[in-house]
Structure formats: structure tokens, C-alpha cells
Amino acid sequence: MIPVCRTEDLPEGGSVRIEIDETTPAIAVFHTEDGFYAVDDTCSHQDASLSEGWAEGCFVECPLHAALFDLRTGAPTCLPARHPVRTHEVGVFDGMVHVRPAVREEAVA
């Protein structure tokens, strides 16, 4: 797992964007009242950073066109987004938030 930040550095309602390397899409990590969640940072509708969106409960609203995603599943809950964003495993160990990036599925030829 990749260390992200200390729990006290990401207040409830806050988010942070992490970039791992040039082959892994950026990840947005959110601290909600239910815990920590991580999804791909780019909205599936258009190129917008979800970490710059508005989080409420277990949902994040895209700042560009107001698509809403469930942070628990990555599923869009309203248009214009039609496709989910990928979710990532999050763990908290010794006061530190960690993310395990999901394995990217390769296209089948």
C-alpha cells in the first residue's frame, strides 16, 4: 500500500489528489463521516478532477458538470456521467492513510 498522508492532515469533508507514476491514473482520496475512500481522480464523463469536487456523505460531485459518484462503489448516480470511476482499497495504519491502487484491466483484443 502507498502512504498518502496522516489522518489529521485530511479533515473530514476533505480530499487529496495523489499521483503515483506516469502509468497510473491519479487517485482522489476522500475523508467522509463514514471513513476514507479512494477513486480515480478523473471524472468518467469529462476530464475533471474529482478531488476538486464537493464531497457530502459518501458521494462526490464533479466540479465540471455536477455528475455525482458514490465513493463506496464508484457508480455514477446521475447524468451526465454514465460510467463508474474505479475504486481503490484504503487502509489506516498507525495514524497514516494508505491506498492500494486497483489493478488496471487491460483491453482484450
Automatic annotation (TrEMBL):
InterPro entries associated with the record: Rieske_2Fe-2S (IPR017941), Rieske_2Fe-2S_sf (IPR036922)
Domain Rieske positions: 2-99
Pfam family, one: Rieske
A molecular function (GO) term: 3-phenylpropionate dioxygenase activity
Keyword Acetylation: no
Annotated CDD domains: Rieske_RO_ferredoxin
Enzyme nomenclature, EC number: 1.14.12.19
Superkingdom per UniProt: Bacteria
Alphabetical keyword list: 2Fe-2S, Dioxygenase, Iron, Iron-sulfur, Metal-binding, Oxidoreductase
Signal sequence region: none
The protein, known as: Bifunctional 3-phenylpropionate/cinnamic acid dioxygenase ferredoxin subunit
Organism of origin: Streptomyces endophytica
